[in-house]
Amino acid sequence: MRPPPQARRPDGYQGDADVARVIAVSSAKGGVGKSTLAVNLAVAMARLGHRTGVLDADIHGPSLPRLLGLSGAQAETVNTRGRILIAPFEAYGIKAMSIGFLTRDEGPVVWRGPLVQGAISKMLWDVHWGALDTLIIDMPPGTGDAQLGLAQDIKPAGAVIVSTPQDLALADARKGVAMFAKVDIPVLGIVENMSVFVCPDCGSRHALFGEGGARREAEQQGVPFLGATPLILEIRESGDTGRPIAADTGEVADIFAGIARQLISD
């Protein structure tokens, strides 16, 4: 398979020049809660004093504006060291950018792979991220040309794989681990999302998608298991209302903080 063409960095000052590290949050399968996890991890890192940003790389289905309560917001530009760059938004202690801040309606972005890849690279290079300890890239789902091209253009320091416990999702998580291995990007670990359903009425716990699957998969792949997040009403509500649950206190916020500490220490 021919490698996808690599995007060319612009001349002059780079928007990510002062970003110390990039981490990709990825899933080979859609619908596993990757974007919600990426945003809450970024917020949890910021609460631990880590300068953090998040880039929504899902051009066809951007969710970052809604997750951060910024739906309808439009990005502005700033003159920085001789270049006109895009100013990221700031919310809950993190810097954020998404194609949703650059389009004026909620219609579909009907672009082919090379255009998608170029747009994401530009949101890295042409956004004034400033000094960050970590920039999280919320990757589009899949393991095709767009994902391989992004991995080559951006070259993250590491990747986090998100999966649910069910066998179907774990098979795709396996593909994600293999994809990053092909481009020499270390997998920092696997997170099991929707690990257990907690009944909002009685508090009983039910393993709807199986139990412990992501932990076993991490052991088989020889990568760290970073933790498990539950399937609860509060996480869904926090995404819909635009206030990440990691910004609050409580058991779930502590789970995200625990995963964030592991990523900060890597």
Write the layout of secondary structure elements.
Layout: E1 22-26, H1 34-47, E2 52-56, H2 64-67, E3 77-80, E4 83-86, E5 89-91, E6 94-98, H3 113-125, E7 134-138, H4 145-154, E8 158-163, H5 167-182, E9 187-192, E10 197-198, E11 205-206, H6 213-221, E12 225-228, H7 233-241, H8 251-265
Parallel strand pairs: 1-7, 1-8, 2-6, 2-7, 8-9, 9-12
Antiparallel strand pairs: 3-4, 5-6, 10-11
Helix pairs in contact: 1-8, 3-4, 5-6
Could you please describe the fold and organization of this structure?
A hairpin with a 6-residue loop joins strand 10 and strand 11 (205-206). The strands form three sheets. The chain has an eight-stranded mixed β-sheet with strand order 5-6-2-7-1-8-9-12, with helices on both faces. It is an alpha/beta fold. The two termini are 33 Å apart. The chain has helices spanning 34-47, 64-67, 113-125, 145-154, 167-182, 213-221, 233-241, 251-265; strands spanning 22-26, 52-56, 77-80, 83-86, 89-91, 94-98, 134-138, 158-163, 187-192, 197-198, 205-206, 225-228. Helix 1 crosses helix 8 (251-265) and helix 5 (167-182) runs parallel beside helix 6 (213-221). The chain contains eight helices and twelve strands. The radius of gyration is 18 Å and the shape is globular.
Helix content: 25-40%
Largest sheet, spatial ordering of strands: 5-6-2-7-1-8-9-12
Helix/strand/pairing category: alpha/beta
Radius of gyration: 18 Å
Stretches where pLDDT is under 50 for at least 5 consecutive residues are none
| Strand count | 12
Distance between the termini: 33 Å
The biggest sheet, with number of strands, parallel, antiparallel or mixed sense and barrel status, is: 8 strands, mixed
